Recover the amino acids of this structure.
């Protein structure tokens, strides 16, 4: 007798098919889960209009939509007047999860596995274990504190205190909040975005597997054998976490060392928005590279492919533990130059030489500048890194790979014998 397809109850606070980052990840993970399982997806009410609109506009995916039942849960609108800013939003998220679990205890939906999908951090607990069914957590990520020398002298005392306050809050959850301990103890399996999350949570090897939350779809793109000029691209929010100070200063150091004929065809393109925009413009002016830098405000997702396709390298010295744009850049065959950390640095191919270690601030800038110089002047090195980027994308950052990982864990929990065999250096495709 054929075993019935399991039903997965997925809670995802952020789901929006028209956005990137956390919202887009939530949407795509739900679609991947629905590829082989029935899904009950629970999210906030404000995500409903975007979900329904997308489903109407994409009838060819109807076979997936039929396997998903969206359920919306939120507090009454009149209670949300205080939910402003990152800290208060995280407090709301904490209580949203707790009250959601209590609400589900009353509703008693029929499912086989509960999966708390996002937000992606290793310090906010889930309460789905209250439902008494097998429970999966993650992917959860770990964002280390930004090194003091990369924050205080550059962005000032306020930014440094904000970062350290957030770190104190995280430590409180890790070491004091009993629900974090209960969450990791009761979880049948934990997806970790990086090894740093597993180490911080002190997880035994059998309890977790590595699954970056970032991924993207296959694209129809043929890399041009010769790109016009040398265009350095960086995309993200203009905030200290993203390391745009390193981006601008490393580019300026690299650019000023070039002969005039190469300077004419070399450019830095910054795509994004945020509170640091004015400061970044000052740096660009002070460093004397105004004519070589272009700043572009946020643009619709469908317009980004042309930006990627026209670029030569993706410079992303972010301090974060993730980075959706890294996967997108790799899908276009762009070498990614970044810091050697648990975020973008861990995403690179193991044979890549483009992860620059943290050193003294100025030495780190010099290391990033040297990386740009090598990519511009050493064509075989550039071609090797571009090839490694595409290899890494196809083996580790396709959404199909995430679907395969989800299915293997769900199958193992529901009694299947298939072992967890996904490896980031092997191409994997889901039929």
């Amino acid at each position: 007798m054929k075993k019935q397809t399991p039903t997965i109850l997925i809670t995802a606070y952020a789901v929006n098919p028209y956005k990137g980052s956390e919202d887009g990840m939530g949407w795509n993970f739900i679609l991947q889960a629905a590829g082989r399982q029935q899904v009950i997806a629970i999210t906030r009410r404000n995500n409903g209009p975007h979900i329904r609109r997308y489903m109407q506009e994409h009838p060819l995916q109807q076979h997936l939509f039929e396997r998903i039942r969206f359920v919306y849960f939120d507090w009454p609108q009149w209670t949300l007047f205080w939910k402003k800013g990152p800290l208060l939003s995280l407090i709301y998220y904490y209580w949203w999860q707790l009250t959601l679990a209590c609400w589900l205890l009353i509703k008693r939906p029929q499912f086989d596995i509960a999966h708390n999908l996002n937000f992606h951090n290793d310090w906010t607990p889930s309460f789905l274990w209250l439902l008494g069914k097998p429970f999966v957590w993650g992917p959860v990520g770990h964002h280390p504190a930004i090194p003091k020398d990369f924050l205080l002298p550059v962005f000032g005392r306020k930014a440094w205190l904000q970062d350290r306050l957030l770190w104190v809050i995280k430590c409180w959850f890790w070491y004091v909040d009993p629900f974090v301990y209960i969450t990791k103890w009761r979880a049948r399996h934990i997806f970790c975005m990086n090894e740093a999350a597993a180490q911080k949570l002190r997880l035994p090897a059998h309890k977790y597997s590595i699954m970056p939350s970032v991924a993207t779809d296959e694209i129809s793109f043929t890399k041009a054998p010769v790109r016009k000029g040398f265009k350095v691209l960086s995309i993200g929010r203009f905030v200290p976490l993203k390391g745009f100070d390193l981006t601008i200063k490393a580019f300026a150091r690299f650019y000023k060392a070039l002969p005039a004929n190469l300077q004419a065809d070399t450019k830095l393109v910054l795509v994004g928005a945020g509170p640091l925009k004015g400061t970044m413009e000052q740096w660009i002016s002070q460093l004397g590279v105004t004519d070589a830098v272009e700043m572009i405000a946020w643009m619709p997702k469908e317009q980004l492919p042309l930006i990627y396709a026209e670029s030569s390298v993706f410079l992303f010295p972010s301090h974060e533990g993730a980075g959706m744009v890294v996967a997108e850049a790799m899908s276009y065959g762009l070498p990614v130059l970044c810091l050697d950390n648990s975020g973008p640095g861990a995403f690179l191919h193991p044979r890549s030489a483009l992860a620059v270690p943290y050193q003294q601030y100025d030495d780190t800038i010099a290391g990033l500048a040297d990386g740009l110089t090598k990519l511009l002047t050493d064509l075989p090195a550039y071609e090797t890194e571009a090839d490694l980027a595409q290899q890494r994308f196809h083996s580790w950052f396709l959404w199909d790979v995430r679907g395969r990982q989800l299915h293997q864990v769900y199958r193992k929990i529901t009694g299947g014998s298939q072992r967890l065999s996904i490896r980031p250096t092997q191409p994997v495709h889901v039929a």
DSSP finds 17 helices and 13 strands in the chain. The chain has two domains: 7-215+399-413, 230-395. The longest strand covers residues 7-12.
